[in-house]
Amino acid sequence: MRLRFSRGVITIAVIVLVLAVGISFGLYQLLKRVQPLAPPEAYCNVRTSLGDRHLDIEQAQVSATIAAVAARRKLPERAVVIAYATALQESKLYNVDYGDRDSVGVFQQRESQGWGKKKQLMDPVYATNKFFAALVKVKGYRKLPVAEAAQAVQRSAAGYAYGPHEEEAKILAAAFTGRVPKALHCWYPPDGGTQSAAPRPKTGEARRQLSRALGSTSITSARRGWLVAAWSVAHAQKYDLRRVAYSGATWSNDLRQKGWQQGGKAGAGEVELA
Length: 274
Prior knowledge:
alpha+beta
């Protein structure tokens, strides 16, 4: 038995189908334009010719601090590589308040072995200075294998474990020492995950804390300028910075941007924070 439909029923069916397709297409286009309802957590990316690395905010802040302390002490990039390899093995570049026996901090230094008080060792600037003070006493450390140089400082039960972190340490050192410009990009939720207005940038406090690690914040070379820029981007969430500009390029805390963009008033003699 064949079913027959009137011309009116067929017309209604066609209209419904056309409306359904139109609505579906419109919703698709709308969803493409709307930002995700649940944005990602804060993150940082390092990109150099040696490779790329993903860090969370704390790891980036610790990395930036180590590079700044090394610059203040006028140490070569090799010293930074050794420090990073050590910190990657000891704490994964986190400032932890626990460890084996009384070991704490980025380098898992021990109060009982004379590194300092626990409160001091939990300060990455202090801990890094103590590490470098010990490293420069190691004869010929610049030419030693990374694992050997690190072990001479740490005197760990497993000194061989520092070596496998060398390649990652070289990538981080290239970025955070400023040798590779525009190598660090970070993003964080600008309103702290709430619907309230974003807080005002604490630019003065950011510069004061940078000076603790770096000493003078004056820009005396392009490399130093990019070091300051990387430190500022790494600490952007902590000090509510939304923009960092240097040498004609600008980082913005914008989820749609994946790195530094050309443009900005700051020249080669100033890192602008906002």
